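Posting for a labmate who doesn't have an account.
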Amino acid sequence: MWRRLARRRFQLPRFEPYVPRATDPKTFWLDTERDDLVEEVVRRIVARHGGDPEAVEAVLSDAVYHEIQRLEAQHDEESRARLGDWRELVRALPTLSFDRRVQTLEDRTRRMAYDVAGNFDPRVYRFAAKVVPTVLASVMHPGSLLPTEGSLDPELRSLVVAQGDIERLRRISEVATVVYVPTHASNLDSLALAWALYREGLPPVVYGAGKNLFTNPIISFFMHNLGAYRIDRRIRAQLYKDVLKTYSAVLLERGYHSLFFPGGTRSRSGEVEKKLKLGLAGTAVEAFARNAVRGRTRPMVFVPTTINYTLVLEAETLISDYLHQQGRSRYIIDDDEFSRIDRWVAFFHRLREHEGACILRFAEPIDPFGNPVDAEGRSIGPGGRVLDPTRYLRFEGSLTLDHEREHAYTEALGADFVRAFHENTVVMPSQAVAHVLYRWLVRATPGVEPFARLRRKGELAVPRSEVTAALGRLRDRLLELEAKGALRVSPWLASASPDRVIDRVLAEWAGYHLTTIAAQRDGAIVAEDPRLLLYYGNRLRPWALELAEPGEERVARELLAEVWEA
């Protein structure tokens, strides 16, 4: 379907050559520096191992073992093209001289680095800024194939809302290297964030994206030309992981604004991430330290960001994956709703009627050591005084590099991200309704094993009046938590009547998801699919005790204690 759409509706223009200017954002220079970036990655990795014969042999042996194992299991075009080369290397490796092994390490590193390295074409960037609203309009308005240019902008502004101190981010972006670290719920996250950055006048970013996402011809075209570097999660060789981290570090050292998903992959459960994978974030701390030792004073600023949807495109696949404990075997999902144009049509058709269907909230920016940062990119210590962040990198008065120390700082930074994620989670209407209904299911099935509870499809019917009243009480407690800074509430949920919220949420679910999540029958709300109630309700799980009804702390504790084991 995508290929037919590309042939029939999507004609890529011919671009005139573009020469970056000094006033352009740093990302505009990525293509001109690509070869140099790759060679710097190669130089560093070879320097790290090249002087030690045992280290060179170990890293090559590890790469040979894991790549042969991976390619033999794939049985695809890549396997046919590359497996023979790796098998030839495993036969030749014992007979190679040390110099030839170093040369082999350099060659394999360069191949991996070029496979990872991203591109950025300013012409495609400007084209995308015009065509993305048109493509979305064609999906959201199927009856109007070619809306006039710019006609959708007001609708997209209400559909995708950015919250936070945007003006401060603009000023910080001029003087510091900014690293956005968002929550991750959908493959639409990168598109939503990129669109919000462009619309708010913030510079574009480079980011890592799963290589499986490059299989779609249209999506691949944009990702390939808009700063995405490719991450092949199937590759387990340590050399490849070193290439990824080194490439990221070099980009950051040179001032490229970046995006990392610290959750690593999309949240399967729907809950806000708590366990983070901080490898790439650690490269930013390392990059700041390396620059400081070299006398480069450009600040490094992290911006935790929450991406909040009233509907999640891939919800059904993600919650099924979570419940069936397939996170390891299906770490890469390549056949979910994101790849199907019919689900895009249904998804956007439901969203178009809902203001604030996606809310991106930018949290307070912080430096690599968790200190708040002002609009000039300066780190602010206790009492509001400006402090020099390089103080954390000094040993006996001198600036030093220390991997273990930087690792400890990164772990502490991860805790700051989690705290910011929770404080800046925007509770959406669908999540509030799902929490009320799933909590009712827990109340009605005390002590029941979690998977047995999920099999109670269509068995729970709650009088509509009681759901309305419970939702009203829940909203009151959510607003109390918002006043304390514990979370945020979507403006529409905060202002609409509970009855209106329920009606709209039920209509959205019915208009998009293939299964009925909940339905109104005979004056009651019936929980038809507890799995998806769990998924949407999980967004509120961290606050279950604070949101518990009086006398129902047991229900909240049972909800928090649910363990999902196959």
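Reply:
Got it, the structure tokens are right above this. The chain has two domains: 158-423, 426-561.
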